[in-house]
Design brief:
heterodimer; A: Rossmann fold; 3 domains; 26 helices; 56% helix; B: Uridine Diphospho-n-acetylenolpyruvylglucosamine Reductase, domain 2; Alpha-Beta Plaits; five-stranded antiparallel beta sheet; 18 strands; binds flavin-adenine dinucleotide; binds iron/sulfur cluster
Chain lengths: 449, 470
C-alpha cells in the first residue's frame, strides 16, 4: 500500500470511529478493572493492560477522542482479542464489550485493503461459502477450508509461517469423518416425538453443524425425540452469521439474519433450539444486529427471544435414564454459550445425571479454550498458549472425556488431546453426542435384563 | 518524550523489552479508575528487581524525569495519572509471594501481588489477612499500602496500616531502605513504615513488604437488615456500636445502589427497601451466634422492616461479593460516576447521611450513598455526565459542601481513597496550613527534585476543585 492511500485509510477510519462507535457505551466503562482477571489475553500476557478489556476500550475511546492514531498496534490488539466476552458477565457496570468490538472491527474491515490472496480467501469464506447452505454441503465446509491449498498461500501471505503447516495438518487429523453427499442431501424436515408431545420446537441446524458435524445434529434430533419434543427443521434457514459478525462483515451478517428470521416465522413452536454456542449467541443478538432497521427490529427481537440452547431444553423436559462405562467427565464452557446466553449450569446438570460416570469440574472451565472462531488460525501463537494451559487443567482432574458445546471448541479440545499425544486415553466430544450415547447405552442395558 | 540519552540509559538497565513507549502502551497507562482524568506518560517501564528500581530512580533523579509507580490503577484519586508526564513504573515482574512464615505469622511479598491472591495464600495455611478492599480481586498489595486501603472488615480488624510491619523501599536518590521486620515491637527511631503507608507514591518506591497475619476466625454469619430510609439504618449503626458490639462488617447501601447491584448480581436483594445494612460477625460459633442475635434485636428495635440471616456461608459470601460491586454497578446509570470518601465519627453517621440528602436536593444532583457504615466511611456517589459542564459545576459545589459538613462533624475529606489530585485542594481543610507545611517539609527532605509522583497530595492552589478533563 502506498503512503498516501495508507493515510487516506487512516483518516477514514478515524472519521468512522467518531461517527459510528457508541460513545455512551465507551463512557459506560468506569475503568474499575473488575474485568481484568477474567480476560484470557490479559492473563496470558502476564498483565498487559493493552491486552485487557479495560485497555481495549480505552484504545477505542482514544481513537474516537483523536488521542491516538488507529495504527498497526491498535489493529493487532483488537485482533488478539478472542471475542470470548468473558469480560461482560464480570462487568458490574454492564458494558457491552462485544458490541463495541463488533463496531470497531466492522469499521476496520470495511476500510481494509487486503493483499490479493487474503482478499480472495475472505471473499470465498464469507461471501461464497458460508452464506450458501448448498455450497457448504457440496464443499463440506471446514474440510475444504483446511485442505484447500489456498489456505497455505494465505498462511504465508499473512504472518503465519513455520508451525502453521504443522498446526493445519494436526487440525485435519482432528476433523470429524465426513458424511457422504447422499447423506447430506437427505436431511429431515420434521421429527416426531417418541411419546406424548411435551414441547414443540424448531431446530436451528447451522451450516457447519449440518455438514461437518452432521452426526451431532442427528444426536440432537434423537435426544429431542426421546425427550418427547416435536421438531420442525425449516428448510430455508442458513448460516447464523457469527463468523461474519465477528470478522467485521456486518452487512452479510445482517442479510443472513433476515433470511433466518423469515425461515422461522412459519409454523408453531415454543423454542428455536441451537446446539452450537457460537451460533446461539448470534441468534439471540439479532435484535441488536438489526436495531437500526425499523422494519426488522421487532421481528428480530421476537426471533431472538425464542432461542434456547439444547441443554436448557433437555434439562427442562427431561431425558430418559442415562448410563455409561466408568469414566471421569469434565466440561469446557463455550464462551458464547456461557457469557452471552448465560447457559452454564444446564449442561453440567445433564452430565452429572449420567450414571456410572464421575463429573469433575476443572479449574477455570469458564475460560476460553483459544478456539474462538477463526482465532486459532489467525492468532495461532496465543491460541496454542491458551490451549496448552487449558490441557494442564484437564489433566489436573484426570478427565478421560472433555465435553464441549460448540463445534469450534470441540475441534480445539481435540487438537489439545492430539498435542498432548493422549488420543488413546482421552477424548473430546460434543455434549449431545455423549448424552445420546448414554441414552442408548442404558436402553441396551434394559433390553438385556 | 524522553530524551534519547535517558531512554538509552533506561534500556541499558532493564533491557529494551521492558521499556515501552508505543502509542498504545502510553494510552493504556494514561488513566486509572478516577473519572475524567487522563494524561499521557512518556514511557512505561517494568523493573525486574529492586536493583533495577534503584538504578532507574537514579537516572530519573539526575535528569528530573517524573516517576509514577502504578499497581493495577484502581485508585480513585487520580493517583496514578501521570499529570506531569514522565515514566509509569509497573510491577508485573515483581509480583511473587516470597514467604509465609507460620511461626511468626507473617507474609512477605513483592509489590505487584494481587490482594486476593495474598488473602487466599494465607487462608490456605489457615491464616488471615483481613484488609479486603472492594477492589481486592484486581488491586495490588503496594497499591493498598500506598493508599492505606480499608475494606469490608475494617470495623473489627482495622485497615492496611494495621498489618504492615516491615517494608523495603527505594528512596528518590536510589538508596534502598529497610524498615521494621517480623517484629511485634520495634521503636528503633522514626516509624518510617507508617510514614510510607498511605504516602501515595510520593516518597519512594516499595519493593517488598512484610505483613502481619492473624489466625483465621472459626466461623462467620451474615445478615441483611432492611429499612425505609438510610437515616434509619444509620441509627442502627450507632446503636450497635453503643452496645459494645463490634461486628466484622457493617456496610450500608441505599435504594438506588441496591437496585443496580441486584441488576448485576441477581441474588435476590430486596430492591424495594429504602436502605439495607449488610452485617457480618465472625469468631467462635457461640460468640457469633450470640452477637448476631443481639444485633438482630437492635435492628428491630431501631425500626428495621425485616431482618434476614443468611442460611449458608455461600449465601453470605454472595452478599458480600455483591456489595463489592456497588461502585462499578452504579456506573451503569450515567456516563460519569464520581465517588467521594467523606468519613465521620461513627456516632455522626445518621446526621451525615441527612446532610448529604439535603445537599443533593439543594443542588439538584443525583447522589447515591453506600459505604462502610461501621467505620463512619461514606461513599456518596454522584451520577452525572462530564460533558454537561453546567451540571458538573453543581456536582463540584455539592461535594464541597459535603466535605465541609464532614469536617464540621469532626470527620475527614478522605477515609481510604487517598488525596491524589482529586482531593489535594481540600487537604488543608482537614490538616490545616501548618499540617500541609509539615507534610511538605517531609516531601522535600525525601524528594528534593520532586520526581516521585509529582502533583499528588500537594495542590498548586487550594480549594478550587478540578473535576474537568485535563
Ligand atoms: C470498584 C472499586 C472499589 C474500591 N473499593 C475500595 C475499598 O473498599 N477500600 C479502599 O480503600 N479502596 C477501594 N478502592 C480504591 C483502590 O482500589 C485502592 O486504593 C487500591 O489499593 C489501589 O490499588 P492498585 O493496585 O490499583 O494501586 P494503584 O491505583 O495503581 O496505585 C495506588 C497508589 O499507589 C502508588 N503505588 C503503587 N505501587 C507502588 C509502589 N510499588 N511503590 C510506591 N507507590 C506505589 C501509586 O503511585 C498510587 O499513588 C476501590 C476502587 C474501585 C475501582
Ligand atoms: S469491569 Fe466494566 S466498567 Fe470495569 S473496567 Fe471492565 S469494562 Fe470497564
Ligand atoms: S472478549 Fe475475551 S479476550 Fe476480548 S477483552 Fe473480553 S475477555 Fe478479553
Amino acid at each position: 500500500m502506498s503512503v498516501t492511500t495508507d493515510m487516506k485509510r487512516n483518516e477514514q477510519i478515524k472519521k468512522d470511529f467518531k461517527e459510528k462507535m457508541d460513545y455512551d457505551e465507551l463512557l459506560n466503562c468506569m475503568r474499575c478493572g473488575f474485568c481484568l482477571p477474567s480476560c484470557p489475553t490479559y492473563i496470558e500476557t502476564k498483565g498487559n493492560e493493552a491486552a485487557s478489556p479495560r485497555g481495549r476500550i480505552a484504545l477505542m475511546k482514544a481513537v474516537v477522542d483523536g488521542k491516538m492514531e488507529p495504527d498497526e498496534d491498535f489493529e493487532a490488539q483488537l485482533s488478539l482479542c478472542l471475542g470470548c466476552r468473558a469480560c461482560e458477565p464480570a462487568c458490574p457496570s454492564g458494558v457491552k464489550y462485544g458490541h463495541l468490538l463488533e463496531q470497531a472491527l466492522d469499521i476496520l474491515q470495511t476500510k481494509k485493503k487486503y493483499s490479493p490472496p487474503v482478499k480472495m480467501f475472505r471473499s470465498l469464506i464469507f461471501n461464497q461459502l458460508f452464506p450458501h447452505q448448498s455450497r457448504m454441503r457440496g464443499l463440506n465446509g471446514l474440510l475444504w477450508f483446511y485442505q484447500n491449498s489456498g489456505v497455505q498461500k494465505v498462511a504465508r501471505a499473512t504472518k503465519m509461517t513455520g508451525i502453521v503447516g504443522k498446526h493445519l495438518s494436526t487440525m485435519e487429523r482432528v476433523l470429524p469423518s465426513i458424511a457422504s453427499p447422499k447423506q447430506l442431501k437427505n436431511r429431515p424436515s420434521h421429527v416426531e416425538a417418541e411419546g406424548v408431545v411435551k414441547k414443540k420446537v424448531a431446530f436451528f441446524s447451522g451450516c457447519l453443524m449440518d455438514t461437518m458435524f452432521m452426526e451431532t445434529n442427528d444426536s440432537t434430533l434423537y435426544l429431542l425425540k426421546k425427550a418427547n419434543c416435536d421438531v420442525v427443521i425449516p428448510q430455508t434457514q442458513n448460516c447464523c452469521g457469527a463468523l461474519h459478525a465477528h470478522s467485521g462483515e456486518m452487512d452479510t451478517a445482517k442479510e443472513l439474519a433476515k433470511k433466518n428470521i423469515v425461515a422461522f416465522e412459519e409454523g408453531e413452536f415454543d423454542h428455536i433450539v441451537s446446539n452450537a454456542g457460537g451460533c446461539g449467541a448470534v441468534l439471540v443478538d439479532y435484535g441488536h444486529i438489526l436495531k437500526d432497521e425499523p422494519k426488522w427490529k421487532q421481528r428480530a427481537e421476537a426471533f431472538s427471544a425464542k432461542v434456547k440452547d439444547i441443554s436448557e431444553i433437555l434439562l427442562d423436559v427431561g431425558l430418559p435414564e442415562m448410563e455409561l462405562d466408568p469414566q471421569i467427565i469434565t466440561y469446557q464452557d463455550s464462551c458464547h454459550l456461557r457469557n452471552v446466553q448465560g447457559t452454564f449450569s444446564a449442561p453440567r446438570k445433564l452430565l452429572q445425571s449420567i450414571k456410572g460416570t464421575q463429573f469433575m469440574e476443572m479449574k477455570d472451565a469458564d475460560q476460553c479454550c483459544g478456539s474462538a472462531g477463526t482465532y486459532n488460525i489467525i492468532e495461532q501463537e496465543m491460541s496454542m498458549q491458551i490451549l496448552d494451559h487449558k490441557m494442564a487443567k484437564v489433566d489436573e482432574v484426570k478427565a478421560a472425556t472433555i465435553v464441549t458445546a460448540n463445534p469450534g471448541c470441540l475441534l480445539q479440545m481435540k487438537l489439545g488431546v492430539e498435542r498432548e499425544g493422549k488420543q488413546k486415553t482421552m477424548k473430546a466430544v460434543h455434549i449431545v453426542d455423549l448424552l445420546a450415547e448414554a441414552v442408548k447405552y442404558k436402553e441396551k442395558q434394559l433390553q438385556k435384563v | 518524550m524522553l530524551t534519547k540519552e535517558v531512554r538509552g540509559k533506561l534500556v541499558d538497565i532493564v533491557g529494551g523489552e521492558n521499556v515501552k513507549d508505543s502509542q498504545q502502551d502510553l494510552i493504556v497507562y494514561s488513566y486509572d479508575s478516577t473519572p475524567d482524568y487522563q494524561a499521557i506518560p512518556d514511557a512505561v517501564i517494568k523493573p525486574r528487581n529492586k536493583q533495577d528500581v534503584s538504578e532507574i530512580v537514579k537516572v530519573c533523579n539526575s535528569h528530573g524525569v517524573p516517576i509514577v509507580p502504578r499497581g493495577s490503577g484502581t485508585n480513585l484519586c487520580a493517583g496514578t495519572t501521570p499529570l506531569e508526564g514522565g515514566i509509569v513504573m509497573i510491577f508485573n515482574h515483581m509480583s511473587e509471594i516470597l514467604e509465609i512464615d507460620d511461626e511468626n505469622l507473617t507474609i512477605t511479598v513483592q509489590p505487584g501481588v494481587i490482594t486476593l491472591d495474598l488473602i487466599e495464600a494465607a487462608e490456605a495455611k489457615g491464616l488471615f489477612y483481613p484488609p479486603d478492599p472492594g477492589s481486592m480481586k484486581i488491586s495490588t498489595i503496594a497499591g493498598n499500602i500506598l493508599e492505606c486501603s480499608g475494606g469490608l472488615r475494617g470495623l473489627k480488624y482495622g485497615v492496611t496500616r494495621d498489618y504492615v510491619i516491615g517494608l523495603e523501599f527505594v528512596m528518590p536518590n536510589g538508596d534502598i531502605v529497610k524498615t521494621g521486620g517480623k517484629l511485634a515491637k520495634d521503636v528503633a527511631g522514626y516509624d518510617l513504615t507508617r510514614l510510607m503507608v498511605g504516602s501515595e507514591g510520593t516518597l519512594g518506591i516499595i519493593t517488598e513488604a512484610t505483613l502481619k497475619l492473624i489466625p483465621i476466625p472459626e466461623t462467620k454469619k451474615t445478615m441483611l437488615a432492611l429499612y425505609d430510609s438510610l437515616e434509619a439504618a444509620g441509627n442502627t449503626v450507632s446503636k450497635i456500636i453503643a452496645n459494645r458490639i463490634i461486628p466484622a462488617t457493617l456496610e450500608f447501601l441505599d435504594q438506588p445502589t441496591i437496585q443496580v447491584v441486584e441488576d448485576f448480581a441477581k441474588i435476590g436483594l430486596p430492591t424495594e427497601a429504602g436502605a439495607v445494612l449488610l452485617i457480618e460477625q465472625d469468631g467462635p460459633a457461640e460468640v457469633v451466634e450470640r452477637d448476631i442475635e443481639k444485633i438482630a434485636e437492635i435492628c428491630r428495635e431501631t425500626n428495621a422492616i425485616s431482618v434476614q440471616i443468611a442460611s449458608t456461608p455461600e449465601e453470605g459470601a454472595a452478599l458480600t461479593a455483591a456489595r463489592r460491586t456497588a461502585l462499578s454497578a452504579l456506573a451503569r446509570m450515567k456516563p460519569t460516576t464520581i465517588l467521594e470518601d467523606a468519613t465521620v465519627p461513627r456516632s455522626k453517621i445518621a446526621e451525615m447521611v441527612r446532610a448529604i440528602e439535603k445537599i443533593a436536593k439543594e443542588n439538584d444532583v443525583q447522589i447515591c450513598t453506600f459505604g462502610h457504615a461501621g467505620d463512619g466511611n461514606l461513599h456518596p456517589t454522584c451520577m452525572t455526565d462530564a460533558r454537561d459542564k453546567e451540571e458538573m459545576k453543581r456536582v463540584e459545589k455539592s461535594f464541597e459542601e459535603i466535605f465541609k459538613k464532614a469536617i464540621e462533624l469532626g470527620g475527614t475529606i478522605t477515609g481510604e481513597h487517598g488525596v491524589g489530585v482529586m482531593k489535594s485542594p481540600y487537604l488543608s481543610w482537614k490538616v490545616g496550613e501548618t499540617g500541609v507545611d509539615a507534610m511538605f517539609a517531609i516531601k522535600q527532605a525525601f524528594d528534593p527534585n520532586n520526581i516521585m509522583n509529582p502533583g499528588k497530595i500537594f495542590a498548586k492552589d487550594t480549594r478550587k476543585r478540578v473535576v474537568v478533563e485535563k
